[in-house]
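Lab manual, section 2.4: Encoding a predicted structure.

Procedure: take the sequence of the chain (132 residues), apply the prediction step described in section 2.3, and record the output as structure tokens. A sample record is shown.
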Amino acid sequence: WCRAELLLAYAFMTTGRNVLVVPAGFAGSSGHGMDGYEIVLANPRETVDTLTNPNDRPVIASLTGVAERSTAFSCWRVCVKQSTVSVLISCAFNVCCCCQWCGLYALLNSRNVQPGTAKMRKYVPRQQAMER
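Recorded output:
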């Protein structure tokens, strides 16, 4: 289920490329900061043999399919969203920049959900915060 949850977060959440993981034993904020590392999104279908409840297989397969077909962060949608944030941004992108920067920004921030190849950044509290 955890792999399916990460895949759905990547597909549909605005901050889906960056995930905060709060491990067991975390005592709270102590000002020590966060450590981030890049992971490859695992395919939830590959681990269905280790499920505690075999009846979850079709649900996980269905959710994985929904995430893979997602167009929530396609280049076009990111472009439209970013260029219509405000009147100022709209004028800056579409009039002053002739939409070239808008298109580049959209391309860099678009996501294509591909389990096994898509990458996300995972953040965890630094070890000092765990030892309190």
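Check your result against the sample. DSSP finds six helices and three strands in the chain.
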